[in-house]
């Protein structure tokens, strides 16, 4: 395939004047030049011209015509000026200089964009050909730029070959485009719609057996693979998991070090007056000191090397100044009889060179980073962390900050789950909100799986007529649904699935939409999966806790939110309030889940004073 020459023309008054930073140009450039992505490989390009111009029809025309006529580019991508504002004139300028129109390119962009926003119908973009150059108007938003360029990318390379009459490349690019379209524009398993909008035909019972929490965890651990290894600087290692045992590269301390500010002495001199021969401070590398003889001493600071000949340090508080000369100490009186090795840290007394300091497969915290630094380890081998995406589903959801529409609620799940993961040193990606529409969910999941290793979704997994996620995963993605119901409260519809994309295994944990259900299942299933993938096999800490209130038992085992407080070495569980799955306030101040058993004919409730297992949040063993 021929290397394609691209020109990028940003049309914006504010960006041209410097009042606003251009985001679209760098986005376009990154998509074209990033050869590690499938789209980047297909676009196969280099940037030969780029410019920012004000919203002026004649200036836009001048750049477009000049680049085309001087054969500087094969494709020109404009961004901005395609809307309804008075100064939006990019389509008018483009139309005046092109010789042929290419309307289906814009139609393809529209079909993709309208899935994301109804505002796409307000774009007036056009596309056409001048000479042997293809010109495409893209929107001004850097987000929309990516959506539109992704939509038309499969056809660009083939279009350029046709314009250049490069017959040797036409077939190759045509096949590459076909392969790309099959792989990414369609879904792995099927393109035939399921017709999930037909409410009367929905299932009235779940086909998935209800398994225990422990069975569900076992399945997740069995399916999870451990990520590859990378070498990183220790300054970036917080929260990562060590691949191999780590051994110290030096003794700590590497010299005999003073523990106190005071005087290095010969212990056998006992108490009495000493002549001060000089001083040595921490970090000193050039000080040359006379040999320490009986009746003499040398002033030392905390952490300073202890001079040869000295075998004790006497702290300043146990001395008295007797004589000075030119503001220097000449004679001090040692008021105590020191003991040999008093207040001296021997070489390697903290850590010996080549000794084991950190074991494999442990998580790096602040103390571990300090140990690595002290032992001279600048870099460390760790397991890569999985790339994680969080996706919310539901027609009723709105982003925080928007005016709330009737019948709608703010999307609290996404921010809550992202915060839980960030508290555990993961860096999740916000994959947005998908409306309850079959093809919208398919497209959103397709895009998300290209970017992540693990996709966490909330909503659309229960038995409502809009709960379509499970059949979509099987039908469109060929996913294996390892379980679709768990015997627990809250969180029964939790679903775990895997599928293959680009010969790589992808994980999907589909959580219920109720906020508390999503929070509880994140702790029980999401964190263990992510920890396993980054090489950590720790388990949550379970303690026995005394109930401080009565509980009516549910048929399913229940994970109730509590605050644990210790009294006389006994953990007491205090309820955080109403435990219904939609009430997120019940998670506030909770530091544990108590695990209540399912009810039986013999046992339908628990009384205050009885003991139950409690899982500590934020702690593992």
Care to describe what's here?
The protein has 621 residues and is an alpha/beta fold. It has five domains: 4-185, Molybdenum Cofactor Biosythetic Enzyme, Chain A (3-Layer(aba) Sandwich), CATH 3.40.980; 210-226 and 386-533, MoaB/Mog-like domain (Molybdenum Cofactor Biosythetic Enzyme, Chain A); 229-251 and 350-383, Molybdopterin biosynthesis moea protein, domain 2; 257-345, Beta Complex (Molybdopterin biosynthesis moeA protein, domain 3); 540-620, Beta Barrel (Beta-clip). 27% of the residues lie in helices and 28% in strands. Helix 11 packs parallel to helix 14 (515-533) and helix 12 packs across helix 13 (469-477).
Describe the structure concisely.
With 621 residues, the chain is of the alpha/beta class. The longest helix has 23 residues, at 142-164. The model is unreliable at 170-188 and 579-584 (pLDDT under 50).
Neighbour order of strands in the largest sheet: 2-1-3-6-5-4
For the largest beta-sheet, the strand count, sense and barrel status come to: 6 strands, mixed
Shape: flat
Q: Enumerate the spans where pLDDT stays under 50 for 5 or more consecutive residues.
A: 170-188, 579-584
Percent of residues in beta strands: 25-35%
Using the coordinates above, name the CATH class of the largest domain.
Alpha Beta
Q: Give the averaged pLDDT, no decimals.
A: 88
CATH topology of the largest domain: Molybdenum Cofactor Biosythetic Enzyme, Chain A
Computed Rg: 34 Å
Annotated CATH homologous superfamily of the largest domain: MoaB/Mog-like domain
**Structural class based on helices, strands and sheet pairing:** alpha/beta
Distance between the ends: 54 Å
Give the tally of structural domains. Answer: 5
């Amino acid at each position: 395939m021929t290397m394609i020459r691209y020109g990028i023309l940003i049309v914006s008054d504010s960006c041209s004047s410097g009042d606003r930073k251009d985001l679209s140009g760098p986005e376009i450039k990154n998509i074209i030049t990033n050869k590690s992505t499938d789209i980047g490989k297909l676009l196969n390009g280099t940037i030969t011209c780029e410019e920012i111009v004000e919203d002026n029809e004649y200036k836009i025309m001048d750049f477009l015509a000049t680049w085309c006529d001087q054969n500087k580019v094969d494709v020109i991508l404009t961004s901005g000026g395609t809307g309804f504002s008075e100064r939006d004139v990019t389509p008018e300028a483009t139309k005046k200089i092109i010789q042929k129109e290419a309307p289906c390119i814009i139609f393809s962009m529209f079909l993709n964009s309208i899935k994301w926003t109804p505002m796409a119908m307000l774009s007036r973009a056009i596309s056409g050909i001048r000479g042997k150059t293809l010109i495409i108007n893209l929107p001004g938003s850097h987000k929309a730029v990516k959506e539109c360029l992704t939509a038309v990318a499969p056809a660009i390379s083939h279009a350029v070959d046709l314009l250049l009459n490069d017959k040797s490349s036409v077939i190759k690019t045509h096949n590459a485009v076909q392969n790309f379209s099959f792989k990414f524009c369609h879904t792995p398993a099927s393109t035939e719609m399921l017709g999930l909008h037909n409410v009367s035909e929905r299932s009235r019972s779940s086909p998935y057996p209800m398994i225990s929490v422990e069975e569900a965890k076992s399945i997740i651990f069995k399916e999870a693979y451990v990520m590859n290894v990378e070498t990183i600087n220790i300054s970036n290692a917080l929260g990562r998991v060590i691949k191999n045992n780590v051994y110290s590269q030096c003794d700590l301390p590497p010299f005999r070090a003073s523990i106190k500010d005071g005087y290095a002495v010969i212990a056998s001199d006992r108490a009495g007056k000493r002549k001060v021969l000089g001083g040595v401070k921490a970090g000193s590398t050039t000080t040359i000191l006379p040999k320490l003889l009986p009746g003499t001493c040398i002033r030392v600071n905390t952490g300073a090397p202890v001079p040869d000949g000295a075998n004790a340090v006497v702290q300043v508080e146990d001395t008295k100044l007797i004589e000075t000369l030119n503001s220097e100490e000449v004679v001090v009186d040692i008021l105590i009889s020191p003991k040999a090795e008093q207040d001296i840290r021997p070489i390697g007394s903290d850590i010996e060179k080549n000794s084991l300091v950190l074991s494999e497969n442990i998580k790096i915290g602040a103390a571990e980073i300090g140990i690595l630094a002290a032992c001279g380890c600048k870099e460390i081998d760790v397991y890569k962390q999985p790339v994680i995406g969080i996706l919310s589903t539901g027609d009723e959801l709105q982003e925080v900050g928007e005016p709330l529409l009737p019948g709608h609620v703010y999307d609290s799940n996404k921010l809550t789950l992202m915060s839980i993961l960030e508290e555990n040193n993961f860096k999740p990606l916000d994959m947005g909100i998908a409306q309850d529409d079959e093809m919208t969910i398919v497209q959103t999941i397709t895009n998300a799986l290209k970017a992540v290793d693990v996709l966490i979704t909330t909503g659309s997994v229960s038995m409502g007529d809009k709960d379509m996620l499970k059949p979509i995963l099987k039908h469109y993605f060929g996913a294996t649904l390892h379980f679709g119901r768990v015997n627990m409260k809250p969180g029964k519809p939790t679903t775990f699935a895997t599928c293959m994309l680009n010969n790589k295994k992808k994980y999907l944990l589909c959580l219920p939409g109720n906020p508390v259900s999503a929070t509880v299942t994140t702790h029980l299933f999401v964190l263990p999966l992510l920890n396993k993938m980054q090489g950590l096999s720790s388990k949550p800490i379970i303690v026995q806790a005394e109930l401080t209130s009565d509980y009516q038992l549910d048929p399913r085992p229940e994970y109730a939110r509590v605050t644990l407080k210790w009294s006389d070495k006994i953990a007491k569980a205090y309820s955080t309030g109403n435990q219904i799955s939609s009430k997120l306030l019940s998670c506030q101040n909770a530091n544990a889940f108590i695990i209540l058993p399912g009810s039986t004919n013999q046992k339908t409730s628990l009384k205050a004073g009885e003991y139950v297992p409690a899982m500590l949040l934020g702690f593992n063993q």
